Amino acid sequence: MDISGISVSHEFNIVDLLNLGVAIAILLAGTLSVFYIFFGGISFILSGGQEDKIKQAVHTIRYAIIGLVVTILSVTLVKIMGYIFGFDLLSLITWDRITGLMNLIIERITSGGGGSVGTGTLR
């Protein structure tokens, strides 16, 4: 199978699964942070001037922003460490690779795909 110039065999290895896990975790953390910023903002607007609700909304927004900053810093740190040690981990994490791996995993699960998960490669 060929996904945007990436040749995908029908099997994949543990490194591919780890890359997929890291990519999904980064996307999920960023998405949840943005969601909680909006949720905190709406809670703040709907607080009606009640001090405890305002305080709770401000805490929600504060911790969501901290989570977003930590997510961005972690991606930046991985990029810097890769530059220092001469490899680029973030080049392995692309949207096409993520969707390709997810589709491949779902396809293997739904088709009863047999074989060991850690034996093949994603090229």
Low-pLDDT parts are 115-123
Shape: elongated
Structural class: mainly alpha
First-to-last CA distance: 11 Å
Order of strands, main sheet, comes to 1-2
Helix percent band: 55-70%
Topology, number of strands:
2
* Main pleated-sheet profile: 2 strands, antiparallel
Number of helices: 3
- What proportion of the residues form beta strands (DSSP E)? under 5%
Roughly how many Å is the radius of gyration? 20 Å
Whole-number tally of structural domains: 1
Order of helices and strands: EEHHH
Roughly what is the average pLDDT, rounded to an integer?
A: 77
Summarize the structure.
The protein has 3 helices and 2 strands. With 123 residues, the protein is mostly helical.
